[in-house]
Amino acid sequence: MYVGRFAPSPTGPLHAGSLVAALASWLDARAHSGRWLVRIEDVDTPRCRPGAAELILNQLAACGLQPDEPPAFQSKRGAIYQQALDQLSARKLAYPCACSRKEIEQAQAARGVVRTRGNELPYPGTCRPPHHHADAHQSRTAKAWRLHSGLASGISGHDHLVRWHDRRLGDQEQNVEAAVGDFILKRADGLWAYQLAVVVDDADQCITHVVRGQDLADNTPRQILLQRALGLKTPSYMHTPLVVASDGEKLSKQNGAQALDLDDPLHALRQAAEHLALNPPQCNGTLTTALSQWTREWALKRV
Ligand SMILES: [Zn+2]
């Protein structure tokens, strides 16, 4: 049984870029006669805007993109994220880290690694057991939790390269330990990290197909590694083309993307469909007929 999802962060209303991802995941679910869920990814509470989740749900409804179940909110699911972290830490696959950002940068600089713009450097492994200094932790209380990517990579006979197939981008691979290092599962401020929340929720909601924007493609190997560490199935992945702003950057709430015009949802959907290389709807068509036309086209091209 196909189960797909659209998982927006409520940092602002939907815009042309996020509608492409929403439409693609909805079409893929409908073309597979599957179920389509919406999950509000509001774990990073300081970045969430009040009312944004409700606005997004109203925008989706105005566009005829109705989820098959009431939406899930990550902010209410801390208990199952904690269970997953407990399971990892009991198996020594997660460990506490008390490093500040500055300490991490200093440790990286000492090894001759310098941050370039937009490039997150691998965690230098300062607190990684068994080499960490026990007493260094005792005087420092705020602790984040990290995945031991080295141990997780070696689980169940996998080698250190995570390989997967993206339905649009083709075969992909990454050595997570080398490229990202031991990434955060729970932040020192107590907030859950995106990677852990997504992996636990996709499994808990029995998601079989993830269709999302290409900006998230780089997270996929970390999520697959976590799935393996937690003994969870890996869903099928497809990353959709990004909508680019006039400055060449990905269109986002941060670079002033306009909220969708709810008075003319068909116009917004037409643009999103065009971006997904679907044909314009027949003239005098309604929202419903346009969505069925695109579902048929999608089924021919992508299923
Ligand atoms: Zn540390």
Q: What does the secondary structure layout of this molecule look like, with pairings?
A:
Elements: E1 3-6, H1 16-31, E2 35-40, H2 52-62, E3 72-73, H3 78-90, E4 94-97, H4 101-110, H5 134-138, E5 144-147, H6 149-153, E6 162-166, E7 170-174, H7 176-179, E8 184-186, H8 194-204, E9 209-213, H9 220-229, E10 236-240, H10 265-275, H11 287-302
Parallel strand pairs: 1-2, 1-9, 2-3, 9-10
Antiparallel strand pairs: 4-5, 5-8, 6-7
Helix pairs in contact: 1-10, 1-11, 8-9
Bound molecules: zinc ion (ZN).
Zinc ion binds at residues 97-99, 126-127.
Give an overview in words.
With 303 residues, this protein is α/β, with parallel strands linked by helices. It has two domains: 171 residues, HUPs (Rossmann fold), CATH 3.40.50.620; 108 residues, Glutamyl-tRNA Synthetase, domain 3, CATH 3.90.800. 37% of the residues lie in helices and 14% in strands. The chain is built from eleven helices and ten strands. The strands form three sheets. Strands 3-2-1-9-10 form a five-stranded parallel β-sheet. A three-stranded antiparallel β-sheet has the order 4-5-8. Helix 9 links the parallel strand 9 and strand 10. Helix 1 packs across helix 10, helix 1 packs across helix 11 and helix 8 packs across helix 9. The protein is globular and about 65 Å long. The two termini are 14 Å apart. The mean pLDDT is 90. Bound molecules: zinc ion. Zinc ion binds next to loops. The site of zinc ion (ZN) has 5 residues, from loops.
